[in-house]
Each structure stands twice: as C-alpha cells, then as structure tokens.
Amino acid sequence: MKAMILGASGLLGKVLMREWQGDEVVGLSSRDVDIRDASGVRQLVERTRPEWIVLAAAYTNVDDCESDPDLAFAVNRDGPVNVAQAARQSGTKLVFLSSDYVFDGKKTSPYETGDARNPQSVYGRSKAEAEVRLLEVLPGCCIARTSWLFGAGGKCFPDTILKLAATRPALDVVDDQRGSPTYTVDLARAIIALCRSAARGIVHVTNAGDCSWFEFAREIVKGAGLATEVRPVSSQQMARPAPRPAYSVLSPKSLQHYGIAMPTWQNALQRYLRQRKS
Ligand SMILES: NC(=O)c1ccc[n+]([C@@H]2O[C@H](COP(=O)([O-])OP(=O)(O)OC[C@H]3O[C@@H](n4cnc5c(N)ncnc54)[C@H](OP(=O)(O)O)[C@@H]3O)[C@@H](O)[C@H]2O)c1
Description:
Elements: E1 2-6, H1 11-19, E2 24-28, H2 38-48, E3 52-55, H3 62-67, H4 69-90, E4 93-99, H5 122-137, E5 142-146, E6 149-150, H6 157-165, E7 170-174, E8 178-179, E9 182-183, H7 184-196, E10 201-204, E11 211-212, H8 213-223, E12 229-233, H9 253-256, H10 265-277
Parallel strand pairs: 1-2, 1-3, 3-4, 4-5, 5-10, 6-9, 7-12
Antiparallel strand pairs: 8-11
The structure holds NADP nicotinamide-adenine-dinucleotide phosphate.
NADP nicotinamide-adenine-dinucleotide phosphate binds next to helix 1, helix 4 and strand 4.
C-alpha cells in the first residue's frame, strides 16, 4: 500500500509517519503543499498516486479561528474539499481527521456517529461543514473524529500542565468540560488499522473513558510525582474566545465495528509520561 499523509509535521502527523511501517508512506507539510491550492493538490495526488490519503492538515488553534474565520474555513473546509476532489479523480481513498467540536456538548451520554452536528465555535463549524461537503464529494471517505490530543512533538495539555506545575504551588483547571483525552500514538495506530480495513463513513476514535480537564490535570500531576495542588474552576472563570462543548465524549461503537479497541486515557497518559522522561 502507498499512503500520503497531509499534515505530516503536526502533532498527529509526526506520529503517523513513525508508526506506519511496512508500506510506502509520503509525508507532507504546508511547505510542500497548501491544501487551499486546488490545482497544486490535484497535481500532487496525480503524481504520487497513493492508495490512501490521511488528511491531518488543519488550522487547529481553536481560539484564533474565532478571530480569523476566513482562514479557518479556507483551511479546514475548502482545503479538505480540494483534497477529496483530487482523491475522487484519481481513485484514492481518504481518511479525514475531524473533531468532537462538531457537537454542541448538550448530551450527557456518549455521542454516536449519527447524532446531529451543532458546532458552537468557528473551528467546530469549519470541521462540521467539511464533513458534510466531503460526504457529498467522496461518499466512500472515512471521517475519523477525535478529541483532546496529546503526545510528543508539539504543544499539548500535559506539557502545559507540567510546565506550570514546576513553578506554581497550585493550578486552576476547568472542571465543567468533559471529553476523552487521546494519545497520538494510539490514534495513529487506529488510523492505520482503519486504512488496512478499508474503513468508510464516520468513525469515532479516542482513548477509552472520559474526564474533565481538571481530572486530567490531576492525573498528570500525580503521574509525574509532583505535589502541586490542582483546583477545579468553571469555564466562566477561565473565559476563552471560543466556546467549548461541555460534554463531548465520543462513543466507541463505530470503532469496535472494525475490531479496534483503544486503551484507557489513564493508560495512555502513563505511557506518554514514561516516554517523556526517557
Ligand atoms: N489537537 C487536537 O486536540 C485535536 C482534536 C480533535 C481533532 N483534531 C484534528 O486532528 C488533526 C491533526 O491535529 P494536530 O493537532 O496534529 O494538528 P497540528 O499539530 O496543528 O498540525 C497541523 C498540520 O497541518 C498542516 N497545515 C496547516 N495549514 C495547512 C495548509 N494550508 N496546507 C497544508 N498543510 C497545512 C501543518 O503544516 P505546517 O507544520 O507546515 O504548518 C501541520 O502539519 C486535525 O485535523 C485536527 O483538526 C485535533
């Protein structure tokens, strides 16, 4: 199999490049191709002729998306449409990375793949509109929704917490947003398995279990053996430009359909903290 990873310099893309063994894999960043450039994308796909494209390229700064919606929609919706059109023309299969932020967070039980999208932020809207367009352009594509990514090779929540915990006696962390932290290593392995299973349609891919950011931070501090106090606060006390869903846990049923089981987020965090030390 030949695979092309768009967004190969990102948090997930770097790990996909490392974990994908036994196949020919081409990794590209924005310096190699700008997904907003439809003809550049088409030429690249025609030249490379991959069997699979994993589209992990995105404008991921959720707060900055609020102040630059044009850029958010250009990169997160129009770029993926360009990729899907190129994939359709060359008969390439596509996995598109999407987000739990396509939901409004009003549910209190895990979101199923068929639940209605109702994004609350510009980033969420750009991802939700991309999903709808992609399913029109390339109905056989695979949309892998994930959440709360962490891992080596970029900015992530555990690193931020550990940096702050090293210099402060106490940290305030929001306790009224619930989701599933997801280790890039586990996500990359699941995506590779999905490609090998010729997956199609919407699939939810996160580590198992859920927590609030406060509970996640407490586990990070404990796992690192630090004594820093972690205090729960509300989202209102820590206002950010982009609204976040209060609850965005994604049901694993769609992933189980492919026989893929994800480790718990606590297990994933332990592995990440061990890897960080070594
Ligand atoms: N991070 C999360 O918590 C999270 C949660 C849910 C879903 N996701 C989704 O998962 C995927 C991977 O996220 P990530 O955290 O790994 O992203 P990331 O670290 O921000 O990396 C983004 C990647 O996209 C590339 N890129 C940005 N603009 C581009 C453009 N116009 N043309 C081509 N490439 C472009 C970047 O290339 P350069 O390095 O050259 O700029 C980089 O390789 C994204 O689709 C994201 O929306 C992420």
